[in-house]
Write a structure and sequence with these properties.
Layout (H helix, E strand, L loop, with lengths): L14 H6 L10 H18 L4 E6 L4 H10 L5 E6 L2 H12 L3 E6 L8 H10 L5 E5 L1 E2 L4 E2 L2 H10 L3 E5 L18 E5 L10 E6 L3 H7 L9 H9 L9 H17 L1 H21 L3 E2 L10 E5 L6 H12 L4 E2 L8 E5 L6 H20 L1
Parallel strand pairs: 2-3, 2-4, 4-7, 7-8
Antiparallel strand pairs: 1-9, 5-6, 8-9, 10-11, 11-13, 12-13
Helix pairs in contact: 2-9, 5-6, 9-10, 10-12, 11-12
Length: about 350
C-alpha cells in the first residue's frame, strides 16, 4: 500500500510495526522482556555502528537535548551550538535554560556549516567543552557534514554531541568511526515507529564527562540506565508497546541492510530533488548540503505554504508539513524518511505537478 503521509515526523508505519503494537503486555521484569530488550539494544548498536551504550527512555526526541546537558556537563560550562535552523535554535535554548554558557555559530537557514567555519569559531572561543551539532536540520532540509565537523571538534578536545533525530536510520551515521560521542534520536522519524521513545547512544568518552558533571538528575541518569541495561532492564517501567514497534522496525532495517537503507534514502532524496527542479520549483537547501530524509520546497512569491498544504490534502489526500519559525509560510517540507519508496515520491511529484501551476495562476 502506498503512503500519502509525507510529514518529516511522525512518519508512516509499516504493517509489521503496526501489528507489533497489538502484542499483549508482558511482565517487564520477566525473562521474555529481558530477552526482547537485550536484542533491541544490540540491534540498535548495529544501526548506529557503535560498540558504546544505548539507552532508551519513554519521551519524544527533544528529551535528548536535556539528557546530553545534564549527564555530560556542569552549570557554567562553555559549549558551542551550531545553529543551522529551528532545531539548532532549540538545542541552544535548552542548553542556555539549563545554565550552560552556550555560544552559537549561526549560518543562514538553508546552508550547512563547513569544517572551516567550525574551526574558526572554536579558535575564537577558548575552553569549549562540547560542540552541539544537528546532523540533519529538519526545518531547512540540510544535512551537515557531521564526520568532518566531529574531527574539528576533537582537535579542540570538545565532546561531540549530535542531534540525529531526523537522520538516524536514514542517513549514513558511523558513530564510532566518526568519533561521535553522544547521538540522540526519536522513534517517529526514520525509525518508522510511533512517537514515544528517545534513543541515546553514549560513547566511551562520555563516561569521564559524566563523572565530572555536577547536575542533579533522576529520570535521565546514565549510570542508572547502564546498571539496568547490564541486567537487560530499564530503571523505570519500559514503554512496552513502543518497544514492540521498535523491535519490528529494527527487523525491517536489518533485513534490508543498514547500508541499503542509507542508499535507498539517498536515491529517494535525489529522485525528489530532480523531480522538483524539473517542475521549476526551488529547493531551500544549498545543493551541497541537501538532505536525503526531508526536503524544504520554497514557495513561489506570493503563494503561502498553507494553501498548497490544504490543496494537497483536499485533492490528493497527501500530508506535507509547513515550514518552521521564520519559514512557516514560505516553504513546504516533504518527508522521505523511514517507510518510503520511489512510488511514494512519484505520487507527491505528480500532485505538485498539477497543484503548483493551478495555484500560481490564481
Ligand atoms: C523532530 C526533531 C526533534 C524533536 O523531536 P520531538 O520528538 O518532536 O521532541 C529534534 N531535532 C530534530 C532534528 C528533529 O527533526
Amino acid at each position: 500500500m502506498r503512503s500519502r503521509f509525507r510529514l518529516p515526523g511522525p512518519t508512516p508505519l509499516p504493517p509489521s510495526v503496526l501489528e507489533a503494537m497489538q502484542r499483549p503486555m508482558i511482565p517487564h521484569r520477566g525473562a521474555d522482556f529481558k530477552a526482547l530488550y537485550r536484542s533491541i539494544l544490540d540491534r540498535t548498536k548495529l544501526v548506529h555502528r557503535t560498540n558504546g551504550d544505548i539507552f532508551i527512555w519513554p519521551a519524544s526526541g527533544s528529551a535528548g537535548w536535556e539528557i546530553a546537558v545534564v549527564n555530560l556537563f556542569s552549570p557554567g560550562d562553555t559549549v558551542l551550538v551550531v545553529v543551522t535552523g529551528a532545531f539548532g535554535e532549540r538545542f541552544h535554548s535548552v542548553a542556555t535554560m539549563l545554565g550552560l554558557d552556550a555560544r552559537r555559530l549561526d549560518v543562514p537557514w538553508g546552508e550547512g556549516v563547513s569544517p572551516e567555519q567550525l574551526r574558526q569559531a572554536l579558535e575564537q572561543t577558548p575552553g569549549v567543552r562540547g560542540v552541539f551539532l544537528t546532523h540533519n536540520e529538519t526545518s531547512t532540509g540540510v544535512a551537515n557534514p557531521i564526520a568532518e565537523l566531529a574531527a574539528v571538534a576533537h582537535e579542540h578536545d570538545a565532546l561531540v554531541v549530535v542531534d540525529a533525530v531526523s537522520s538516524a536510520a536514514g542517513l549514513p551515521l558511523e558513530m564510532d568511526l566518526w568519533g561521535l560521542d553522544y547521538v540522540m534520536s526519536g522513534s517517529q522519524k526514520a525509525w518508522m515507529c510511533p512517537p514515544g521513545i528517545v534513543i541515546a547512544a553514549v560513547g566511551q568518552r562520555c563516561w569521564d564527562a559524566y563523572d565530572r558533571s555536577t547536575y542533579r538528575r533522576f529520570f535521565w541518569d546514565f549510570a542508572a540506565s547502564r546498571e539496568a541495561a547490564a541486567e537487560d532492564s530499564t530503571p523505570t517501567t519500559p514503554p512496552e508497546s513502543t518497544l514492540y514497534a521498535f523491535d519490528a522496525a529494527l527487523d525491517l532495517i536489518l533485513e534490508e541492510g543498514v547500508d541499503e537503507v542509507w542508499a535507498r534514502h539517498a536515491s529517494l532524496g535525489a529522485q525528489l530533488r530532480t523531480g522538483l527542479l524539473a517542475l521549476g520549483l526551488d529547493i531551500l537547501a544549498d545543493p551541497r548540503f541537501a538532505s536525503n530524509t526531508v526536503t524544504a520546497v520554497t514557495m513561489p512569491d506570493g503563494l503561502s505554504s498553507k494553501i498548497v498544504i490544504e490543496r494537497l490534502k483536499r485533492d490528493y489526500d497527501i500530508d506535507v508539513a509547513a515550514g518552521q519559525g521564520k519559514l512557516t509560510n514560505s516553504v513546504i517540507r516533504i518527508g522521505h524518511m523511514g517507510w518510503c519508496d520511489a512510488g511514494d515520491i512519484e505520487l507527491v511529484l505528480d500532485a505538485l505537478a498539477e497543484v503548483m501551476p493551478a495555484l500560481s495562476r490564481v
